[in-house]
Amino acid sequence: MRCFLGLPLPEAWKQALAQLLPGLKRGLSSRLTWTRPENWHLTLKFLGEVEDARAAALAAALPDLRFAPFGLAAGPAGFFPHAKKPRVFWLGLSQGATECAALAAQVETLCTGLGFAAEDRPFSPHLTLARVREAHPDDWAGLAQRAASHAWPPACAERVVLWQSVLSSQGPEYRPLAEARAV
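The chain above was modelled as a monomer; its predicted structure follows.
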């Protein structure tokens, strides 16, 4: 099964995204696939295809994570790899990025201890807003500014979830398998 570990986001952020999306989509000539609000999360570690037994071992070990709840605030928006060749449109954090990085390091240690491959890229806390399927000359800087300047409510990270990602023609469906709660 295809799995990842991440932070679920509160309903208030999902509602804010749903309000924001129509304005972000307006006027773009590029073709983007927008993340559905019900799937919104902050990935701590993508695992890829995982055998059932390894997923069960990870689910059993997940409660061993120890972290305090921490605040999240939306921050700057941007693009991977960069705005000149956008593939992913993301929203960063102005609060909680350091805590997310520390939690991602704990998740990495837990996962490598269970035999999962170590991540070879540095962790960059972000929320994927859209994937750019076909890029045309658009006002990418303006798009990022509109996303970052939106009124995002405060949020708190209190859980790490192990999700299974089930792919379908309607997009992915994320099914929670296990979680660790902040202490």
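The radius of gyration is 17 Å.
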